Amino acid sequence: MQEFVWLIPLLPLLSAIFLMVFSLKLPPTIVAFLGTGSVGLSALLTCNLTWKFLQNPDLITTTLWTWIKVGELNANVGFHIDGLTIVMMMIITCVGFLIHLFSCEFMEDDTSYSRYFAYLNMFVSAMLVLVMSDNLLLLYLGWEGVGVCSYLLVGFWYQHSGNGYAARKAFIVTRIGDTAMMLGLLILFTELRTLDMQSLAASAQARWQTGDFMPTLACLLLLAGAAGKSAQFPLQTWLPDAMAGPTPVSALIHAATMVTAGVYLIARMHGLFTLSPQAMTVIAFIGVGTALMAAFSAAVQTDIKRILAYSTISQIGYMFLALGVGAWTAAVFHLMTHAFFKALLFLGSGAIIHCLHHEHDIFKMGGLWKRMPIAFASFLIGSSALAALPFTSGFYSKDLILLSAYQLEEFGPILWAGGLLGALVTALYSFRLVFVVFFGQIQTLPDKENGWRIGLPLFILCILSLIGGYFSLPLNNLFPMERNGHPAAWVEMVSIATPLLGVIVAYVLFIKSPSHIPRSLISPHENKLSRILYSGWKLDEIYDRLFVSPYTRSTSILLNEPVDKLYNAVVLINQKLNAWLSYSQSGRMRWYMVSIAVGFIVLLGIAITIPKGFS
Amino acid sequence: MLELALFYIAASVALFATVLAMTRTKAVHALIYLIVSLLAIAVIFFLIGAPFAAALEIVIYAGAIMVLFVFVIMMLNLGEKGDARERQLLQPHIWLGPAILSLVLLVELLYLISTVEGPASSGSVSPKDVGLALFGPYVIAVEIASMLLLSGLVGSYHLGRRFLDRGL
Amino acid sequence: MQELAVPLNHVLFVSTLLFTIGMLGLMIRRNIIFILMSLEVMLNASALAFIAAGAHWGQADGQVIFLLILSIAAAEVAVGLGLVLQIQKRFKTLDMDDANRMRG
C-alpha cells in the first residue's frame, strides 16, 4: 500500500489536467464522472490507507524524487504520513468527494461545467500535497496551489466584475500572509539548515532555548501565514467576500479544508511553537479575538453565505485558541468536526439557494421547513453542531477547547470567558439563521426539487456531524503531553449551558415574539453599532484608508510616469537641438564659412588667453 | 635694405591685387588681379630665399591653374545679367558682418605672430635640399599627393565629360 | 648662409592678411567661381607662411609642404571647375544659394 500513496494526490491532478485540456469536447456526464470519480478513488485509497494505519500505526514515508538540491537545501518530493496527515487526508478526500457529488447537480446548468471540476480537482490535489508533504517547501507549494485554486474558484463567475474583485482580494490578502510565511521558512532554513519536518523540530529544540527570540520570530511569521490562509485577525477580510464563488466551493475551500490549512500548519510545527510561549499566547488571543469579532458580525448579516463565512472565521478562531493553549488534539478535533458541520451547512445553504432562484437574503426566505425537509434537517443538525449543543460533534470538540483554555495558567479564565461569550453568540446567530429561514412566513417558493446527488451528501454529512464527536483520532504520541486534569464541575456546567441559553434567546426573539426583535438584528443599517458589525468591524474601510487608497493614489501618480517625464525631457531637448542644428544645415555655403570662422576665432581666442606656462 | 623695400612693395601689390580680385563683379577681371597677386607673392618667395618655389608659383599657379579658370569662365559664357547681380550682392550690409569677423581673426593671428620670437634666419634653401627632402623623408607624402592628383584627374574628367557629351 | 633682410614676422603678417582677405571673400561671395578663387588665395597665403618659416629655419620642409599645397590646389581646382560646369548646366546659375536643394 505504501507504494501507492502518491496516487492519492495524483489522481485528482490527472483528472484536472485531462478536464482542462479537453474541456470543450466532453459531455457533462463524463466530466462529472471523471471529476467526482477521481476524488472518489482517492477517497477509497485514503480509507484503505487509514485502515492499514489504524492496524499498524507506523509512519509511512515515501520519497518520490529530489525536487530541489542547492547547496544545503535538499527538498524532496516526498510524503510523510502520520496520524495528523491521515485525519486531514480523510477530511479532504471524503468531504471533498461528497462536495464533488453535490456539485454535479448544483452546477449542472453552468456552461463551464468542466472548468469547474478541473479547478476543484486541482484544489483537492494541491491540498493533499499540502498535508502530505514531508518538508516545508513542498508544503509551501501545496499552500500556494490551494491559494491559486481558491482565486480561480472565487472568481469562477468572472463575467460579474464584483466576483473578480473578490477573487483578487482573496488572493492578495492571503498573499500578505504567504509572504510572511516565506520569510519564516527562510529564517528557519538559515538558522536550522533544514526544512524537513522530521528533523526540523529536533534541531530547533537542540539549537534554541524556550523563549528565545529567533523561534518566536519564526513562529510569528509562520503565524502570519496561517492567519492569512485561515482568515484570522487581522487578515480575515477576504473570507466574507470569497463567498462570491459557487456555494460548493465555499463549502470545500472556504469552510472545510483550505482555511484550516493554517491550523494544520501550526499543529504540524508544534515542536517549534512550543519553544515560543510568547507566540503561543499571541495565537490564543488572536484566536479568541477573531472568534468574538466574527461571531458578532455573523449575528447581524443578512446574506446566508456571509453568515456562514463569518461563522467559519469564528470557528477557526476557536481552533487557534486551542492551538494557542497547547491543546493540539482539541484543535485538530475541532478542525474535523467543523469540516463536517460547516460543509453540511454550506451544502444545505447551497441546496436552498439552488431551489430559490439564487436568493441569498435570509429575510426573503422563511417557512421552508415543510418544503425542503432535507435542507431543514441538515441545517438543524449543522446549526446544533455549530452551536455546540450537547451530543453533537461540535459539542465535544468545542467543549474540549474551552476546558483546555480554562486550564491555562496565566490567561486561562480570560480566554475561557471570551470563548464562552463567543459560544453564546454562535448559538444565537446559528439559530437565528434556522428560525428565520425555516419558520415564519413563506416569502419565496422553491421552484425545483433537489435530486439524490444533493440529498446523499447532505445525508452523509448529517450523520458525520452527529457522530463525529465519537471518533477517536489517531493522534497518540504525535503531540506532547496535554493537560489531563479536569476543572471544577461548574466550569463544565457553564460551558454546556451557555449554547442552550443562546438557543433560547434566539427562540424567544425570532419565534415567540417576532414583533419584538431588535431592529438591528433584522436590518443591519439600523444603527451605528450594527453597521460596524455588519461591515466586519469596518476593517475593510480601515484597510482601504491605510493601504489601498495610498497605493492607488501613488499608482495614479505613477500612471503618468513621472520618471519617464525626465527621460522624455531628454528626448525633447535632443529633438529641439536637432531641429536647431538642422536649421543650421541650410545649404548656404557662406553660412558654413561664417560658422567655421567663428569657431576658428573662438579657438584662437582660447589659445591666446590660456597662460603661457600652461601648455 | 633694397630687399626689404622690394618686399614691402611686393607685399602691398599682393594685398591690393587680392582685395581687388575679391571685389570684382566680372570673373575675368578678378582672375587677372589674382594672377597679379600670385606674381607678387612669387617675388616675395624669391626675396625670402626660395627661388625654386617662386618659379613653381609662377609656372603652376599663375600659369596652369589660372589658365584653367580662364578656360572655364570662357566656357560658361556669362552675360551682363550676372554682372548686375554680382554688383547688387556686394552691398555693405552683406560684407559688413563677415568683414568684422575677419578683422577679429586677423587681430588674433597678428597678435599670435607678434608674440613669437624666433632665432635669426639662416639663409636660403636650395632646390637640391628640397629635392632631397622630397624624395627622402617625404616620399610617402609625394605618393599620396600623386594619388590625389590622379583622383583629381579622374574626377574632373568624369564631371567634364558628361558636360561635353550632352552638349551646351 | 647669408642673413635674410626680410624679418619673418613681416612675411607672416602679409600671409595672415592674405588669408583673412581670402576668407572674407569666401564669406561674402555667392558666385562659385569667386568661392574657388578665394580658396586659392587662402591656400596661397598658407603656402607663403610655410615658405617663410622654412626659409627662416633654413629647412627644406617648408618648400616640400608648399609643393604638396600646390598639388592639392591643382587637384581641387580641377574637380571644382568640373563641378562648376555641372552646376551651370543643371541650375543655370552659379549662385550657390540659388543652387541650394536642402530643406532645412
Keywords:
heterotrimer, B: 168 residues, mainly alpha, Four Helix Bundle (Hemerythrin (Met), subunit A), 7 helices, globular, C: 104 residues, 3 helices, 0% strand
Summarize the structure.
The complex is a heterotrimer of chains A (615), B (168) and C (104). With 615 residues, chain A is mainly alpha-helical. Chain A has 24 helices and 2 strands.
Structure characterization notes:
The complex is a heterotrimer of chains A (615), B (168) and C (104). With 615 residues, chain A is mainly α. Chain A is built from 24 helices and two strands. The relative contact order of chain A is 0.08. Chain B is built from seven helices and no strands. The radius of gyration of chain B is 20 Å and the shape is globular. Chain B starts with a helix and ends with a helix. Chain C is mainly alpha-helical and 104 residues long. Chain C contains three helices and no strands. Chain C is elongated. The mean pLDDT of chain C is 85. Chains A and C meet through α23 and α24 of A and α1 of C.
- Helix and strand composition category of chain B: mainly alpha
DSSP helical segment count of chain B: 7
Biggest interface goes to: B-C, 88 and 73 residues
Give the mean pLDDT of chain A: 85
The N- and C-terminal alpha carbons of chain B lie at a distance of 55 Å
**Count of β-strands of chain B:** 0
Low-confidence stretches of chain B: none
The overall strand count of chain A is: 2
Low-pLDDT runs of 5+ residues of chain A are none
Structural class by sheet pairing and helices of chain A:
mainly alpha
The order of strands across the largest sheet of chain A is 1-2
Query: β content of chain A, as a range?
Result: under 5%
Question: What order do the helices and strands come in, and which of them pair?
Answer:
The complex is a heterotrimer of chains A (about 625), B (about 170) and C (about 100).
Chain A: H1 7-21, H2 28-55, E1 60-70, E2 73-81, H3 83-106, H4 113-132, H5 136-154, H6 161-192, H7 197-207, H8 213-229, H9 238-241, H10 247-256, H11 261-268, H12 270-273, H13 277-300, H14 304-324, H15 328-355, H16 373-387, H17 393-406, H18 412-438, H19 452-467, H20 489-512, H21 528-534, H22 539-559, H23 562-584, H24 589-609
Antiparallel strand pairs in A: 1-2
Helix pairs in contact in A: 1-2, 1-4, 2-3, 2-4, 3-4, 3-10, 3-15, 3-19, 4-5, 5-6, 5-10, 6-8, 8-11, 8-13, 10-15, 13-14, 13-18, 13-21, 14-15, 14-17, 14-18, 15-16, 15-17, 15-19, 16-18, 16-19, 17-18, 17-20, 18-20
Chain B: H1 2-23, H2 27-47, H3 51-76, H4 80-88, H5 92-115, H6 127-134, H7 139-166
Helix pairs in contact in B: 1-2, 2-3
Chain C: H1 8-28, H2 32-57, H3 61-91
Helix pairs in contact in C: 1-2, 2-3
